[in-house]
């Protein structure tokens, strides 16, 4: 049993690839404590076996891409909790290794995507759903550079530049990747047809259109109803494969650090997403292995 033998970009040329679901909800279902500012990063540091088990649950459900537990792992945030630079670099490496082990535990091909979460995620105050942090593009690039370098050194198949709330952060991330040859996808979090910061989606997606390192663009950590309008906007400005991995429809309440579930579950018109160009489809927060199993069966 081996990890995927070819580039993810090649697979996307001819078929739909199934992503995993929400790592945090699966860890919670396994009894892990995600309280505190480090969130799933705390479990990565204290219970790596549980992270591997969560990845394995998704792989066994049919996921073909496992997204690492590095979303909220950042040097400054972890330094505030007693982790020196070497220890944080080791955690970033560990996140890739754990997903890799889970990928090798199943018979089908599985790619490992190293999660590069937004700056706001490390603040643990819901800022990733607002963006516009008051930082210049160069400051955001300086923040992301060391964690990207550490993740790339660990050898994932692709970087997941995910839950990006605004074009400033996208510009910083794309600038770091341009010319490196490191494959990545760019995924915005959106609401009501715009980025979380209120920017036009066509312009946001156009930023990645001419960056060869970007193998797919799309949306994640949003309501299912926001997916199709965003994919339509993306398809108008780029011919890259599209991706969609929304939440289950719940809304994050940052002050209480809880999810508010919808009164009525939102439908997932996956076939419509695919017709719009989605080649990578999966789930984000509160989407578990059962939903991924259903997607894999229908893919």
UniProtKB/TrEMBL annotation:
GO terms for biological process: methylation. The keyword DNA damage does not apply. Zn(2+) binds at residues 221, 284-285. Residues 5-299 form the Hcy-binding domain. InterPro entries: HCY_dom (IPR003726), HCY_dom_sf (IPR036589), Hcy_S-methyltransferase (IPR051486). GO terms for molecular function: methyltransferase activity. Its EC number is 2.1.1.10. Gene3D superfamilies: Homocysteine-binding-like domain. Keywords: Metal-binding, Methyltransferase, Transferase, Zinc. Its cofactor is Zn(2+). It comes from the Bacteria. This is Homocysteine S-methyltransferase. It comes from Streptomyces antimicrobicus.
